[in-house]
Design brief:
The protein is mostly helical. The protein has 7 helices and 2 strands. A two-stranded antiparallel sheet has the order 1-2. A hairpin with a 7-residue loop joins strand 1 and strand 2. The protein is globular. The protein starts with a helix and ends in a 13-residue tail after the last helix.
């Protein structure tokens, strides 16, 4: 008796197929964006900086790091590279000279316009044929998912902070 392939495949937990579809779409978007940015001589992380500074000039390094979902130290190194390429400049804050405000140079602004146009082309292709109602539903679903994941991340961080420190790695005392 022949059994179908579906019968041999264990059922996946509810939501796994939706999650995998989101992951696949993200990975494909990342691959397309990476290729489009490479054509402009820009890495994805540099595009994120260019896009953020084009839309929010004068933000601080800390604010930029939060927007790009990376550590402040990672942004620091990236900004130094972009500064040396003539795309970004740091200016002392008028009220507090310890704070540096980030701005695009003229070259950085021109490049940001190119990378943002490439991003807009990719987004247009992604949503082509989708109705406003479908896009609203995707947005709302992903916002709810993000809220739940933020809560999970916060709970995990709290759990790690309150957990006793592991003694692993320390040699056992011998009497």
């Amino acid at each position: 008796m022949a059994t179908s392939r579906a019968a041999k495949t264990p059922s996946s937990p509810h939501g796994t197929q939706a999650w995998l579809a989101v992951v696949r779409a993200y990975n494909l978007c990342d691959a397309v964006m990476t290729a489009r940015m490479a054509e402009l001589g820009v890495r994805i992380a540099e595009h994120e900086v260019l896009a953020n500074l084009a839309t929010a000039p004068g933000i601080t390094q800390q604010q930029l790091a939060a927007r790009c979902f990376v550590a402040k130290s990672g942004i620091s190194m990236l900004l130094a590279q972009m500064e040396s390429r003539g795309w970004v400049r740091r200016e002392a804050d008028a009220a507090d000279a310890r704070i540096k405000r980030l701005h695009l140079t003229a070259d950085g602004q021109a490049l940001a316009q190119q990378t943002l146009a490439a991003q807009a082309d990719v987004v247009r292709a992604m949503v082509a044929g989708s109705s406003d109602a479908e896009l609203d539903q995707v947005r709302d679903s992903m916002q709810r998912v993000s809220q739940r994941l933020e809560a999970l991340r916060a709970a995990d961080a709290l759990s790690r902070a309150s957990a006793p420190r592991s003694r692993a790695g320390r040699p056992a005392r011998r009497g």
